[in-house]
Amino acid sequence: MNLPNRITMVRIILLPFMVFFYLANFIAPWGKLVAFILFIIAASTDKLDGYYARKLNQTTVLGNFLDTNADKLLTNIGLLLVVCDGTIPAPWGVLAAIVYVGRDVVVCALKELAATKNHVFKVDNLGRIKAGFQMVGIPAFMFVAFLKQAITNETVILVFEIIAIVTFTIATALTIISMINYLVKNRHFFKEDEN
Are 67 and 49 in contact (CB under 8 A)? Predict the structure, then answer.
């Protein structure tokens, strides 16, 4: 396995540890802080693996598959954690989770459809920007969950909640726009082949 793929695997391997620490109430509030740090480390490997893949000319089909799915796992698992514990209150967290997972299913289906027609499905800049906001908004809520357990200063908590809400709202809007964008740009894949 080449270096970029090993870096991507680190992102995947960190996920169960992130979940464990986030849910480990017996070490509260530090478990949530550790989970937040693990999310940041995992998210940072996304840029690192891409950098080395290009620099070392080691871009592979396996690497693309691992990278894409590691990103989806990280964002969706992180989102589910902050939704399940109520850090993002109902019904907003549940609706956002439906949007995130739904968009990922649609994009995966488009990739499969493109592959059946011998086309390569390419990620565009809107998808990258969306991912960037997700990688900020989700851990911001993880940090808010830590603060709610660690401190009593409501002003500090409110400031970080506002930051989390703004970045996460932008991420969710971009997730919807990105899904629509992919559907429109790739609508030709839905046409039946002519005999």
Answer: yes
